[in-house]
């Protein structure tokens, strides 16, 4: 009788341990995104979306040149679509210009990685990159649909 109880108790403990391990493996991962103001930039307001949901906002200016955010991945997801949207004001030939920037792409297993928000093409394209592992972020040129400003 004692051995049956001991077996039952051992099986119960093992079952609990397996459930805890499974629950921990399903916890969402995190990654970081750093946005840094370029020397030509006066200000930047940008938004990061994962799978169409706003997950971070960055506001840079003359008094704040860099911001890093920790991003929570959707539970159980390893590949997610992203979009970066925003407005960047630059000084060009002595005049201020404001550019609407947006683009989209996909992140592949970004958990634990540090990505940079990068502008290119005279601040008209805006995307994420991991300089240590370029396979983490793919970039599709063109405007991101989630960034479209609704008109009334």
From TrEMBL:
Recorded hits in PROSITE patterns, A to Z, give: PROKAR_LIPOPROTEIN (PS51257)
Keywords from the named record: Signal
Signal peptide interval: 1-23
Protein name, per record: Uncharacterized protein
Species this protein is from = Gluconobacter thailandicus
């Amino acid at each position: 009788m004692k051995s049956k109880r001991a077996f039952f108790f051992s099986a119960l403990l093992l079952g609990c341990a397996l459930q805890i391990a499974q629950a921990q493996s399903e916890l969402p991962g995190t990654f970081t995104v750093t946005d840094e103001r370029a020397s030509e930039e006066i200000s930047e307001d940008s938004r990061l979306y994962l799978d169409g949901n706003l997950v971070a906002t960055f506001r840079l200016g003359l008094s704040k040149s860099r911001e890093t955010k920790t991003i929570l991945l959707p539970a159980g997801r390893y590949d997610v679509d992203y979009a970066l949207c925003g407005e960047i004001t630059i000084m060009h030939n002595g005049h201020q210009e404001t550019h609407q920037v947006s683009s989209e792409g996909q992140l592949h297993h970004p958990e634990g990685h540090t990505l940079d928000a990068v502008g290119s093409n005279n601040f008209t394209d805006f995307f994420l990159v991991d300089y240590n592992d370029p396979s983490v972020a793919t970039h599709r040129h063109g405007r991101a649909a989630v960034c479209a400003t609704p008109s009334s």
